[in-house]
Amino acid sequence: MSKPIVATTSLAGCFGCHMSLLDIDERILKLIELVEFNKSPIDDIKKFTKQCDIGLIEGGCCNSENVHVLKDFRKHCKILISFGECALMGGLPALRNGIPIKECLDEAYLNGPTVVNSNPDKILPNDDEIPMMLDKVYPCHEIVKIDYYLPGCPPRADLIWEALVALITGNELKLPYEVVKFD
Amino acid sequence: MSEKIKFTIDGKECFAEPGQNILDAATDNGVYIPALCHMRGIKPAGSCRLCNVKIAGRLMTACTTPVEHGMDIENDIPEIQGLRLAIIEMLFVEGNHFCPACEKSGNCELQALAYRYQMMVPRFPYEFPVKEIDASSPKLIIDRNRCILCKRCIRSFTDENGKNIFAFKKRGHKLQINIDAKLSANLSDEMAQKAMDICPVGAIIRKEKGFDQPIGTRKYDKVPIGSDIKSVI
Ligand code: SF4
Ligand code: SF4
Ligand code: FES
């Protein structure tokens, strides 16, 4: 049997979840024996070159690009896993969810203390090349179907490892109390 | 000594003092029933419904129901555990719970319950309600994003002079917790800490005191909530 293929991405996240994935230490050697990576910042493959078995999603959706990438992952991956608080519930980027988007943009480009005198033409970013901000930050499962969730900020390396191994080997997943945490 | 009341929880024989509520009696018998709004020693409110148990096929809140002779109580059964998980999930989507940035994280009872029930993600859509923070008091911050309206602060906390400093304002889904800024300014550090500890979540936070316990050393980092319950009968 050929190796399962894994893809990963960071949407509106800080890359901390990917760092935590690397934090499995020397087990990374075992991981590359167990799986093959496709589109992922880990191997720098930018576009899907084949259908994948597992997609790991870090970060929620804060702009149109995030939604596009997430839908692309759903299309190319049999199983999608949201990992980390941002993917699960929006995380810190979702702190803006109670503030109207216009106010956020005005603060960032017109009125904020670091920009107030440096944007005399009062330009807000508005170019086809630049992804559109969404009205709020969405958890991934409110955009596409997500199959599994791994909470944590970041999810503990042991949680990511145990979950991946259980999924790949088909063994039962046993989670010690200490590994499922929200911070 | 008055006659003990005999009853069972999930088939286990238990004993209670006359008039004792099911929740306190269960605790004394070493049986864990989850609770958020109840605190031993204060009048039960029955508002969070986490302590739901089944008696003769009916759901009852354990904190408000006195034990009766021969009661057979169902507690640890899939139906009730499922209901409790659903309540926990609802509390998470109803407020704004950014645990990674919360001073109470690791010591929070709501979060600890989510851990105990292995909540990976709430099944309900997030509401992201708009809530105000009141930081006007020099000692305490009131973060309504995290308040679960359990009333523990109102029911059990008074200042050194016996005055209430917490109260509810508004009604329905606008209901919110408020603090008397003037009275709270006079609180000693110990009393401010007591107020913070009464709140099961991170809605009452001491100023200049956040994040002082390293991860791994906090109350619920290593052991689930309820693990300290032991029979005293
Ligand atoms: S109050 Fe508890 S559940 Fe809410 S954000 Fe703080 S730690 Fe998390
Ligand atoms: S502030 Fe805390 S103790 Fe008071 S009602 Fe809200 S959650 Fe309960
Ligand atoms: S603990 Fe009984 S209803 Fe809240």
Structure description:
The complex is a heterodimer of chains A (183) and B (233). Chain A has helices at residues 16-22, 27-34, 64-76, 85-89, 101-111, 157-169; strands at residues 5-10, 36-37, 52-58, 61-63, 77-83, 133-138, 148-150. With 183 residues, chain A is an alpha/beta fold. Chain A has a single domain, classed as 3-Layer(aba) Sandwich (Rossmann fold), CATH 3.40.50.700. In chain A, the strands form two sheets. A five-stranded parallel sheet of chain A has the order 2-1-3-5-7, sandwiched between helices. Chain A has a two-stranded antiparallel ribbon with strand order 4-6. The longest helix of chain A is centred in the middle third of the chain and has 13 residues, at 64-76. The radius of gyration of chain A is 18 Å and the shape is elongated. In chain A, 36% of the residues are buried. The mean pLDDT of chain A is 96. Chain B has 233 residues and is α+β, with helices and mostly antiparallel strands. Chain B folds into two domains: 5-76, Ubiquitin-like (UB roll), CATH 3.10.20; 85-206, no CATH class. Chain B has six helices and ten strands. Chain B has helices at residues 22-28, 78-94, 109-116, 152-156, 181-185, 189-198, and strands spanning 5-9, 12-16, 52-55, 58-61, 72-74, 133-134, 140-143, 166-169, 176-179, 204-206. A five-stranded mixed sheet of chain B has the order 2-1-5-3-4, sandwiched between helices. Chain B has a three-stranded antiparallel sheet with strand order 6-7-10. In chain B, strand 8 and strand 9 form a beta hairpin. The model of chain B has no long low-confidence stretch (mean pLDDT 96). Chain A binds chain B through residues 82, 85, 88-92, 94-95, 97-98, 136, 139, 141-142, 148-151, 153, 175, 177-178, 180-183, and chain B through 96-102, 105-106, 111, 114-115, 118, 120-121, 125-126, 128-131, 215, 221-224. Residues 35-38, 46-51, 61-63 of chain B line the site of FE2/S2 (inorganic) cluster.
